[in-house]
Design goal:
Layout: E1 2-4, E2 9-11, H1 12-19, E3 37-39, H2 47-67, H3 78-90, E4 96-100, E5 106-110, H4 111-141
Antiparallel strand pairs: 1-2, 1-3, 4-5
Helix pairs in contact: 2-4, 3-4
């Protein structure tokens, strides 16, 4: 652990030597030439760790992109998509269903409207996974993972 008073920064032993004093570890407020604070250790992440953080960031971006409503119809959750599938399976071609939209309005929709959303979701998800896998391939060979962005 490192400490600083804004003038000097060091570990406990270095601070004791700097102040030429025996310091109580648990009472920074009693150290001379204060106020003293604990400095967060700056840890250099390895390339593998930085790549893993970037992979997680890319996965979150992919998941967010896939959860955005389509035609004001929510597709974010599994339940949303199951509701769409149920309605498509149980509506006749000319039947109309009152659907609660993503903005909480209610609209009358046909089976074809719901099917268009499912089709668009499938295409968007396919495209986002292709983009994600392409970025993961770049991530495998890069020395600068921070340069890769969604």
């Amino acid at each position: 652990m490192r400490y600083t008073n804004g003038i000097f920064t060091g570990n406990y032993k270095e601070c004791s030597e700097y102040l030429n004093a025996s310091l109580p570890k648990a009472a920074l407020e009693n150290w001379p030439d204060g106020p003293w604070t604990v400095v967060a250790d700056s840890v250099e992440l390895s390339l593998a760790q930085r790549k893993e953080l970037k992979r997680r960031e890319l996965r979150r971006a992919r998941d967010i992109e896939n959860s955005v409503a389509l035609s004001n119809i929510s597709v974010a959750s599994v339940e949303d998509r199951e509701n769409l599938s149920w309605a498509i399976d149980n509506l006749g071609d000319e039947d109309v269903i009152s659907w609660v939209m993503d903005d909480n309005t209610v609209e009358d929709l046909y089976k074809s409207d719901l099917q268009a959303v499912v089709d668009a979701y499938t295409l968007r998800k396919k495209a986002s996974f292709e983009k994600y896998t392409g970025l993961l391939l770049q991530l495998e060979t890069t020395e600068d993972p921070e340069a890769i962005s969604w």
